[in-house]
Amino acid sequence: MTTSTLAPLETEQKFRQAMATFPSGVTIMTTTDENGEARGFAASSFCSVSLDPALVLVCIAKTAQCHGAFMSSDQWSIQVAGSAHVDLIERFATKGADKFGGGEFVRDHRGIPVLLDAAVLIECEAHARLDGGDHTILVARVIEVDVDDRPPVLYFQRGFRPLDQIPLQGAF
Known about the structure:
The protein is built from three helices and twelve strands.
């Protein structure tokens, strides 16, 4: 194994730059805290883990204001953001913002806030919580999925970009 000769700050900056070149989808993950208050965050760290059982993962910063809610609640919802949700994503990605103040969410049968016009809505429950350095890896068991035909939003080069606004002609 080789060790980096870069100073830690330079390594962090290069790592951030490298990750910014990798486009990823954007999700909004929601739950409720012990008082029933809506909690949530935006995440680009989302992927499938297993088909049988159906598992997905999302990573949350340990410094996130809603981290405690996701550690104590086992009922979660994951929304793949659609192109109409760029402002909403930015709100959910902003620390201290009133994330649920815009009225876009309703409570599902479990009391979890859900975005009904999401490109994909995944009802899930906690399967595992794993240490991931300065993040916690939340592994969720998928209970129900609703897929819409809305195009998703991508996070690329530190910006949210609706897929339907990215020219794909001749890209492949």
